[in-house]
Amino acid sequence: MGDRKYRPVYMFIFMGLMLMVIMMNYSFNLIYYIQNRIYENAVKTLFPVETYFEDNYDENARSVWVDSENMFSMAEEDKKPATQTEEGVVEAGAAVCPWPLQENAAGNVYNIADLKNYDFLMKFYTVTSITSLTTQIMRPEEFLAKDLSLEKNADSPQILIFHTHSQEGFMDTVEGDTSTTIVGVGDYLTDILTNTYGYNVYHDTSVYDYVDGKLDRSKAYTYAEENVAKILKENPSIEVVIDLHRDGVPDTTRLVTEENGVIMSKVMFFNGISYSKAKGDIGYLYNANRDDNLAMSLQMYLLGEAYYPGLLRNIYINAYRYCLHMKGRSMLIEAGAQTNTSTEVKNAMVPVADMLDRLLGGEKAYEE
User: Fold this and answer.
1) What values do phi and psi take at 315, rounded to 5?
2) How far apart are CA 161 and CA 205, in angstroms?
3) pLDDT tens by residue, 256-286
4) Can you spell out the DSSP letters for 263-307?
5) How many domains does the chain have?
6) What is the pTM of this model?
7) Long-range contacts of 210-213 (CB under 8 A, 24+ apart)
8) In the listed set 46, 63, 83, which residue is the last one of a domain according to the structure?
């Protein structure tokens, strides 16, 4: 009888404990959510620097992370004040300087045993604070061994070059003259790959970042993805996709180097890996070609180190995918910045084309 008398009390205590557990779990989730929102807002408040890397696809409708590191945490060798350039400003439309290609790998050729070491390899990368190039994602031995060669066929397009941000210009850009913008750089790269190396190149000059008469990059990657998908469907022979940009840096910074007496801009390869520290794999931005993307930028970087040391900046890693998921051999290339001249950036396309041709020819730049 005594037990029956206190049974409702026991049930009340049990239900209260269960409710307390549920509320604690909810509270922890709520606190985690609030912490993430505070962190995102803090990043956007503390680093309100405009860069041209907006979110891709669904990211366009979500919160935008700002790459402050891309602007202010560059490698020391990248931080060259404009006043240190003795050649001065090249006038708009100035002829691009021809120069001989490197026939031998006289630069930095690394031992494959070192390259298979994750910690050694990380010195070639700049990774933003919102993502992580984990050992599960970056697998050097596998990526170095990947065969990215391509049998050349000039009868149909094999390489696509496009510009998510076609309005990007340089210090000598003339309004209305696309030859002095990033599109003009794409024209020059197309010309080299076509006439020097014999590739059939499709250069898409569509505008994705200028809407209703004004600059608007809020959905540039969405618009670019839609049209690039259409181009690839209509041209199934295309196996290489390059989104060609220029970087945005402080006005006192000049990304320049010299090859065989020719002044040219530095170049940076960019990977979006669909992974964030806060959320892990970003499912709605799944990229089935991420491994090939990473292998391509790594192998291209090593070719650059071997033949054109000093030309390449660290490979830049960010959380999203941009338009890199369309093909395995996809690259986002940042050539120079707004503080370069268009001629300097066009000069850099000569070694970029050479590196790409070596990659597609199956060349590997490391010592066994």
Assistant:
1) -65, 130
2) 8
3) 999 989 999 999 999 999 999 998 999 999 9
4) EEE-EEEEEE-SEETTTEE-GGG--TTHHHHHHHHHHHHHHHHHH
5) 2
6) 0.76
7) 210/166, 210/167
8) 46
